[in-house]
Amino acid sequence: MAKAIKRVGVMLFVVAIICLMAVGVLLGNNAIKINSYLNGGNAEENYAANNIATIADKSYTLTGSCSQMATKWNEAVKYSIDNSGANVIVSLGNNWIAQSDSTYTTSFGTANFAQGDSDLNCGRILVPVGANITLDLNGKTINRALTTNVSHGSVILVRGVLNLVDTKYNSALVSSLDSVDKINNATIGKITGGKTGVERYENGSAITIDGGTLSMYGGVIYNNNHRSVASHSGAIGLGNHGVLNLYNGLITFNTSQTAFSAIAEQRGSTMNLYGGVIRNNTTYSNYGGASAAVGAYPIVNDYPLSKINLGASIQIYDNYVNTNNASAIREKNLVLSDCESADKIIHLLEPMIKDGVGATYVGISNFRTDNLFIDNYAEMANGSYANRFFFSDDKTLK
Q: DSSP per residue over 263-304, as a string?
């Protein structure tokens, strides 16, 4: 009898070890998958991602209620900060929907990083200074769930480093997502529900980059709105030397009441648009001629000029300005309204044809007839005419 009990105990111990090893393999595979994702292992879906060498130090999965997910997020962020900005993978195990809040209307939870910017989350998901987070949407949705525009109504505030990935991202699926209903029903990572109010310099209604760096490799940013006097974007906004690296993803069906409906930069920030698709975003007023889907504001308060840098796979098309007058609806994609001097023009990041393919398709507004609008075209064009990659939003121009 004693031998039988001993034998059963040994067997249970072995089974337990095997289970633990299996869990470790699963967690390890998840980290390996995302590291491969960031390092170009899925090159078709993650253009130029091999430029990033990210090795995760630790990984977390967010599940449960909104508050439970916030607690785990805070734990991941704190680990990164406490370990000198170690990269941490955070994967969504279920949708993260902001809950009703008496102060911020809706909120993802309270930051508890015990440092100076913890009070800046204002209901948003915060990536604070010193944090380095790789967020895998994993086919799930992050939704601020606002029905009215409020101050600080964006979804995510980036002051550190955020690598945004979606391991369920599929380019073939993305090409078919031509309505909000289709996006709602698609198994793909999404960021939605941001509605910013009237404050200036809040930048983006989905993601505000305030001095931090966002590198986006996948996911859909859609159905966000800004209503402000200026200095906003319906989706991603950059300020205070912030950096956006867009490698892939879809930015669509975002709206703005002034200025830019998809991406706006100001205050010395930099946008590097290597790839991805920006389409079907709408501005509902003509703000000083600068209204469009993508653009940069002029110099503000002695900050250096913001730059617009384009790669070989970026697509910006079918974005519109609508002044509630059917005859005035017009396509406006990337605006060059503040580019009267030579240092306010587009810069190409790389050769426009790679591996025999040139996928760039960008509409340009406000052409200047007396100056070039790209400073290094001859160097990067592979001998091709500009109309292979760019078109005029003014259909009377060629």
A: EEE-TT-EEEEEEEEEES-EESS--TT--EEEEE----TTPP
